[in-house]
């Protein structure tokens, strides 16, 4: 087995281990939750009605049986892994008997659409500005841009979103502040629907971009600031290589490696949704689904969403590990 | 250069979004034909089975606009006008020992697919749910119904397992009730629990038009044959609202903005600050339950300080009374609702018919009520609380606050208990407590501390009330910490995992004096040991032989018997004497209406229907609304 094959096998076992531990931990945590889905449903059915106590007892027993919550912790754990392998997380307990996968499949396109776009835009803008600011340190416009993103960086996404909501929803009401698309418009590849998607996604995407850009900016500027003093860059400058070539070929490219790993992790975590932003703008993605699941004690749903997220992050890291040797020859271990 | 390109790109993006302002708010539906109501975020938007677990409590218009049953009680109403025969032609008819109930059905009512509604649908509803445990009303039907028959298409006879003078309440809507199933749809369904019932056939005036698969909106359309429904038969002309849109309008701030932008006609509930913003800025385009301050609509629920009677020292009546007398209710009203609270000294919400049946007749009794502190006898009731709250809010709201004492009582409640630190001290001493410095010690010598549980952000007004009460108790030497339970609140209340809590344990019909709605579950037969789940209500696990006697007598009295109100008064007097929980106020709900497109909303002056979007009685509001002639033309 050559060096690359050994590297591949090692990384694959790491991937399996990460998924196993992550999913097991999630199962443990959700099962320790004090929120009982049967009680949540009983509460929903009796909160406002005149239901007598004898009926409530009967209702509780029937629901426990219906939801399949019997069996020991180990039985449920093994059964859960069986379902994960089959790609089936069982029925949602808060939307019984709809399968969890069906709920996830309904929310996933919204989250992937919004977050992938926002993550990629944030990554490109943050790294570009960071690299430029690190290399052209005396440029006034870049200093100003840097100061702006640095000022936004510590502001929580919730506050940023709320400010955007007030500006574009109330002071200058040109953008929708709630939902994923216009009401009574059915999903289709028409201009109206696509425009509606863009309009409704603009504020959540802006929130994510503004909240996330600072992190990429700071790390990239820091990386570039270190690289510009490296011997190979100094030598290139002394050799008369143009600034743009030094920036793109010798500085930015070298600085990009850890950022690519970061991008992969961010893209992987897309599957967990952007909880606060989705809540704020009522965006119908995975984050909102996860919060609903937590509040309603629907641990099938919570497990489904978090397992998807864990597997996605692990796959992203694994893929990056595979691609790394192609980007950086030093990783091709012999 | 790069930066300029970025700025240009941003401007380009801005240009693409500008047309948003000119876009129809609802594609293809004229805004002035649609009533937009705050709805929930549906997790499973494709699901329209009302009879699945939890389905009958849906808040997206399904139960409010398409379902029907025998009777409705207007929670805001009083007397006979509060009662509506819906599918039933008359009130319930029981045999002498309440083991049989006969219901006569109205004629000429049809499902939206053209099939006639008959007694067979009712029989099918009951039998199917008994045969399928887990369905919404399976348990109460199984417990109560021995058999159900349809001797003719317009008559249903229920034979009961045991005498039950309140069996009809299963089919009586306050918020919801057992909805009748379409036999012709469900009889071909193999598993009614797994059937999504999409699209649903409707038995009421509206039918499904379209819905968002992402769960943010559902649009209902007026049926062409709306006259062939129970609600339609009562109307002289067609409802003006052609479309009803249940829309999840987002977080509380977004809801306020959307209403001020005229994109949300009916809000379910917002914090006082949001309400006051709308009142100040929307001005003539808004309507409320009260024309001005306090704006809020009092729900027939009773937020209270609940004590766990199975945890010492809260089983002691003197301790509970002492804690009540340590509360300055004016501060609680100002801090929780900024004064817009409807206070309650009696253990029933001060709404609907309770005002005339209980609050007004019991004022003298309350004023004369004497409490033995161990050292002396005091009269703790203060009938002037409403005037005091009015004086506190008048500097802010000026002329909105009337001088008429009767009006003030409607706005702020009839009265409450005077804060009396000395009397509380005497009561605690009577219970064997001692004070060391500023710390009260229990009879066993340990410090008297309290964990006061609140739900948290989900009900901000009650969380604020809990915080203020905790401060007041702490200042008087009982260290009280606020315990935020979040989503575990209901479960912890049920399991008895609390010492004291701010929540409601009393809900009533609102429009009827019968208190069995909650009181039935207060019988000692249903009290569980600590750790086991208590049936809903009586979360404080109050046990009293006198209470059992009242409940047992109430069971033998017909629903409309005048003796019902007498028994109600007996219960209320017992609750004052024992103070099993400290009633605070009605749950005041800020539910403002936008009048840009629709007028004629219910109000305190004209309480013809429920106003909360999730109450099924809302249907009576929807068909009564009138289009605003000055509305923008779409």
TrEMBL record, chain A:
Q: What does the entry list under GO cellular component?
A: plasma membrane
In which broad location class does this protein mainly occur, judging by the first location in its UniProt entry? membrane
Localization, UniProt: Cell membrane
Q: Which residues form the ABC transmembrane type-1 domain?
A: 108-324
User: Which PROSITE patterns does the entry mention?
Assistant: ABC_TM1 (PS50928)
Topology in the lipid bilayer is annotated as:
Multi-pass membrane protein
Where is the chain membrane-spanning? 12-30, 110-136, 157-177, 197-218, 255-281, 301-324
Name a biological process GO annotation.
Answer: transmembrane transport
Q: Which domain of life is it from?
A: Bacteria
Q: Which UniProt keywords apply?
A: Cell membrane, Membrane, Transmembrane, Transmembrane helix, Transport
Q: Which family does it belong to?
A: Belongs to the binding-protein-dependent transport system permease family.
Q: What is this protein called?
A: ABC transporter permease
Instruction: Supply the source organism for this entry.
Output: Devosia geojensis
From TrEMBL, chain B:
Whether Nuclease counts among this entry's keywords is: no
Gene Ontology biological-process entries = peptide transport
**Location relative to the cell:** Periplasm
| UniProt xrefs under InterPro entries | SBP_5, SBP_5_dom
Bilayer-crossing residues are none
Residues of the Solute-binding protein family domain? 85-520
Protein name according to UniProt: Peptide ABC transporter
